[in-house]
């Protein structure tokens, strides 16, 4: 497997931290990104302690500039502004969007309407020169951080228009689940994958669990 330099924008949050942990364990060179280099450094130290490997931290823009692959793991609120501010640093990169535009009300979680179709497509529109792939939407942050074992009962669904980029992200998914991610189609399918997380959140509340996605019926 290739070794990549991977920036995790929003890596100080539970989802970014959890994904970063497994990418580090998979042998990749990870830099945690944050709006505050100090916060990034603290999370990097926490992951280094957990994994026994070197992890660095930097402000989001510096992290994105030094990486081959940039994971975007931030809330939907503020997404457009953040991607716009990083557009130059993201140009030409493989950008993995893990963002779920969700709303919450008295009935629970639901997918928000997005003008561009999805968060991943919004990123592609703001940064046309990036190779945007959608992935890692459905993994629980708690499982990512707490599990001692690979999440090998779950699948990572991967969508994108650049086949080579999608293959790389399928391979990265293996760091978390122990098996390649599943090709779920073109980037426009992010409009289906992102709000699916709302279904999982409602299942979690109803059954008091951490549900996930597993695909049956395909040869691996
Ligand atoms: N939590 C889960 O279980 C889970 C599961 C699946 C998918 N996801 C998705 O993963 C993404 C991140 O989830 P999370 O729970 O880790 O989110 P979070 O804790 O709310 O945010 C992650 C990080 O994003 C940065 N951030 C927050 N607001 C921002 C803004 N307005 N502009 C720029 N950066 C901002 C913060 O880092 P700094 O303050 O250090 O910059 C924060 O630590 C979301 O889109 C979520 O839907 C989450």
UniProtKB/TrEMBL annotation:
Top-level taxon in the UniProt lineage: Bacteria
GO annotations of cellular component type: plasma membrane
Keywords: Oxidoreductase
Pfam families in alphabetical order: F420_oxidored
Single GO term (MF): coenzyme F420 binding
Domain Pyrroline-5-carboxylate reductase catalytic N-terminal stretches: 5-101
Name used for this protein in its record: NADPH-dependent F420 reductase
Native species: Nocardioides sp. (strain JS1661)
GO biological process: copper ion import; NADPH regeneration
